[in-house]
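Handout, page 2. Input:
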Amino acid sequence: MLDETIFDARMLVLREVKLLPVVDDSHPTLVAFKDPDLKERVRKKTKEILIDDELRRRRYAERCLLSGLWVARQWGWADLAGGYWLAESRR
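Output:
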């Protein structure tokens, strides 16, 4: 997964400078990068992608949890110490 993320980051960095993702690191445009160089740009973009993926995963988990709580309450389930139990009146 990390290799794919790094590849995606490199592809995005190359796309920003209007190059194809299959360009070799010895391309004159890439060699001309001084501040920051290609490795540093890819490192920063990889970090951004990882952070965005983690935030997306957390939002999804939160939505699933909230929708699960809503369904549980609709069916008469109650939250007790982090778990669910069927309300006595529904048994």
